[in-house]
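Input chain follows. Return structure tokens only.
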Amino acid sequence: MRKGHARGQRAAVLVAALLLTLVVTDVALAFVVTDGTGRTVTLPAPPRRIVSLVPGVTEMLFAVGADDRLVGRTDFCDYPPAARGKPSVGGTVSPSLEMLVSLKPDLVIATSAGNSEETRQQLERLRLPLYLVDPHGLSDVFRTMERLGTMADRRERATELVAGLERRVRAVAARVAARPRPRVLYVVWPEPLIVPGRGAAVTELIALAGGASVSAQAAEGYPRYSVEAAVAGAPEVIVLARHGAHIAPYARDKWERFAGLPAIRAGRLHSVDGDLFHRFGPRAVDALEILARLLHPDAFAGAAAR
């Protein structure tokens, strides 16, 4: 009896050791990443079927050569043009969950700002792995690109891309470093007036381009702003974001009537493509270069535009 009992104990120990080994092996083989909000995301393997709910992320995936892993996008993920060939799950705020599930993603990428909390909770209830991005500046964009490259097995391409973008940022900084900083009013939306405030990505772009945003000390993010406060800032350059002919006018006449503003007197009322400035992806550096040329045209005299 004792021998049988001993053999039973040894067998139980061996089984327990085997189960522990299997658990440890599973953990070791898991693909663990940290998203842009600091959340730990654990996947059984690197993602091969990604749905992007963020236009900037869609651009990043194409830029790093991982578009073959992108199986779904939103209606607003329309750049590069090839992105339009991917199935759409609808809008960014309330995508079609039925369509999303039908794509069988092993990772859904969303943003803590542009996608609703309800959508994020629904995705979690459906047990769809969710990776959140939260870019507040160019360094966040570069970090996100590198992480996406790692997840999609495109680390080398992502590293090369980020290095090239960082060189372009440094080149802009060198050209504007010794120049006076004009006061800049950037209009995200004309009515109600919305501007970049503290910590906003566009506020950083203005500073990197050699300007001083008149709304830099406004509420955090992209707050409403009074026209009176904008005029009181005496902007020397006014930049109006365009959002497409069928979305909203960018209201030049609203500002041209303030003939006494330094920007109007000097003829420095400009419009820019809002997609470049508000979709924080690889083209954010294009936006920086465009803005720097608007603020400091003399600094770029003779330099070819990209």
